[in-house]
User: Fold this.
Amino acid sequence: AVQTLVADSGFFSQANVVACVHSGVEPLLAIKRESHHEPLLERFAPDPSEPQTTDPVVNMVHRLSTQAGKGLYKMRKQTVEPVLIHLDADILISCVDSRAARRAIHAQVFHPHAHYRYWLDLGNTESTAQVVLGQAPKRTGSDEEGPRLPCVTELFPELLDETVPDDNRPSCSVRVSLASQGLFVNDVAVRFAAQLLYEVFSRGGISEHGVMINLNSKRSGPIEVDPRTWQRFGCVEATEEEAIRAG
Assistant:
């Protein structure tokens, strides 16, 4: 059942708000065109006091001014499908908020008809982040040499565990409070990811294919291109000969 209706100012009218409330649906309809860049102090300001009224429009306006309401309103631009990607791209870059979205991306990257060569994933919590550049499984006729770089879902297989619930707190797409996510963690992760791409394109090779970041301890550590490093994550890739014997 629909619980909340989110729409821009073109759908606002008192009649629409009242109709939603009478139908048991929470309306979040912008009453005017808003600036795309909310001032920082307003973005993280405490919620205003709740109005003592039964007027549905007044209550809706208050809801839109709260941190939770702002977070819900921002989701109006999201598509129903969490992952919509092209199977013929050479590199896929992802920065998603849920395990479910990463599982969907993993399925696409490892799809037998996909042509991806690389998957660059950025993920974070409140003060930590990881950036991982991995390679899709080798395709027939590939001229790539050396061990395949494991993807983020291979270094962190728990991301594929459907029994682990998603963390539904606001994250990189719905930043509604500094208490739930640090202000700079996304920026740091993006800079490391950009550096990885720069090295791949400018040098044609890398010795580290990822990084672990902890802003609380002010430390970062590389993920080296080394099977011994991957083993410490619990990722052990079988050799082609071992895979044939296992099959």
Notes: The radius of gyration is 22 Å. Confidence is low (pLDDT under 50) at residues 79-83, 169-178, 238-247. The first helix runs from residue 14 to 22.
